[in-house]
Amino acid sequence: QVQLVESGGGLVQAGDSLRLSCAVSGRTFRCLVMGWFRLAPGKEREFVAAITWSGYWIYYGDSVKGRFTISRDNAKNTVYLQMNTLKPEDTAVYYCAASLAQTTHQDLYDDWGQGTQVTVSS
What we know:
With 122 residues, the chain is an all-beta fold. It is built from no helices and 11 strands. The protein has strands at 2-7, 10-13, 18-26, 33-39, 46-52, 58-60, 68-73, 78-83, 92-99, 111-112, 116-121. The strands form 2 sheets. Strands 2, 4, 5, 6, 9, 10 and 11 form a 7-stranded mixed beta sheet that branches. A 4-stranded antiparallel beta sheet has the order 1-3-8-7, with no helix packed on it. The chain is globular. The mean pLDDT is 95.
């Protein structure tokens, strides 16, 4: 079992920045890839970004490219999502997830955090 705990969400205005954190514990050997997904009201869960712990593979969803940056701190077992130039359409619950596969498909992520709310006002 892998435990994932997100933090850093909040209420901000359009154009602001936020940094989300995901602390990883437990069977971390199951976490080849760490991903961020988001779920907005009335929409399907959307892939945001993913990274391998080695850092050699990073991938972003089209809607966040150029604005969001995913990174990791191996010593702290923590993954971050730096979100800049936030827009109202970025409002969602953001989830951290772990996978053994280098993938953007949510069905291949086995472990999930509880989520953190990000609300962007216009």
